[in-house]
Design goal:
Blueprint: E1 10-16, H1 42-51, E2 57-61, H2 66-75, E3 78-81, H3 89-98, E4 105-110, H4 118-129, E5 134-139, E6 142-143, E7 147-150, H5 154-158, H6 167-172, E8 176-179, H7 192-198
Parallel strand pairs: 1-2, 1-4, 2-3, 5-8
Antiparallel strand pairs: 4-7, 5-6, 5-7
Length: 199
C-alpha cells in the first residue's frame, strides 16, 4: 500500500482557458496546443507536472479547444469547459475550483508555464497541507507561479469574477513564501519567440 503523502488532499487546478492574444492576435493558433520537444502540447506538459505530484488535476478550457481538451483527458486530467472564459481569468479560476470544492486546498498553475518543476508543486502543496492559507514559490528573490491556496479561501475563490484572478487575496491575506530552486516559476509562453526558446 503506497504511503500517504501530506499533499494527497490537495487538488491541482490548471488554467488553460485563455486566448493568448499576444501569441497570435488573429486567434488562429492556440499557444497552449503548440507542441514542445518530446511531443507534448504546452498545457499537457504543465498538466503532467501537476499529475506527477497530485492525485487529481482539474483543467479549465474554453469552448472550441476540443483537441487540447482531449489530450488533457488522455493525460489523466478532469477537464471542464467554461462558457464564460472570455470574461477573464478570475471567472475561469472560480469555475475550476467549483469543480473541486471538497479539496483540502489547490495548487493553481498556468497552462502556459510548462517547465515548473514537480518538486516545486510538491513543496507548495505540502505547505498548504500543513496549515498555510496561501503558499507562493520564490526564486532569486522573486515570487512566481503556481500558487497554492488552502480550503479556508474557498468562499473568496468562488467569488472571483474579473481578470485579476486571485491577486487580491495575495495582497490582503497572509502568504507563506516557499524558496525553490526553480527558474521555471518565472518562465511562461506569451509569444512565438518564447515558444522557440523552449525548443
Amino acid at each position: 500500500m503506497p504511503a500517504i503523502r501530506y499533499s494527497d488532499g490537495i487538488t491541482g487546478i490548471l488554467l488553460a482557458a485563455g486566448k493568448g492574444s499576444r501569441f497570435d492576435p488573429a486567434g488562429v493558433s492556440n499557444k497552449l496546443a503548440q507542441v514542445l520537444p518530446g511531443g507534448d502540447m504546452v498545457a499537457v506538459r504543465a498538466a503532467k507536472t501537476l499529475l506527477s505530484t497530485l492525485r487529481e488535476v482539474v483543467v479549465v478550457v474554453r469552448p472550441g479547444t476540443d483537441s487540447l481538451a482531449d489530450a488533457l483527458r488522455q493525460a489523466g486530467c478532469k477537464v471542464v469547459q467554461c462558457e464564460q472564459a472570455g470574461a477573464g481569468m478570475g471567472v475561469s479560476l472560480a469555475y475550476a475550483v467549483s469543480h473541486a470544492r471538497d479539496a483540502a486546498g489547490w495548487v493553481i498553475a498556468l497552462g502556459d508555464m510548462p517547465v515548473v518543476r514537480a518538486d516545486t508543486v510538491e513543496a507548495l502543496a505540502e505547505t498548504v497541507a500543513h496549515g498555510a492559507g496561501i503558499a507562493v514559490p520564490v526564486h532569486e528573490g522573486r515570487r512566481g507561479n503556481p500558487v497554492a491556496f488552502g480550503a479556508i479561501h474557498l468562499p473568496r475563490l468562488l467569488q472571483l469574477n474579473e481578470d485579476q484572478g486571485a491577486r487580491a487575496l495575495l495582497r490582503e491575506c497572509p502568504v507563506s513564501e516557499v524558496m525553490v530552486n526553480d527558474p521555471g516559476i518565472h518562465q511562461d509562453i506569451d509569444t512565438l519567440e518564447d515558444l522557440r526558446r523552449f525548443g
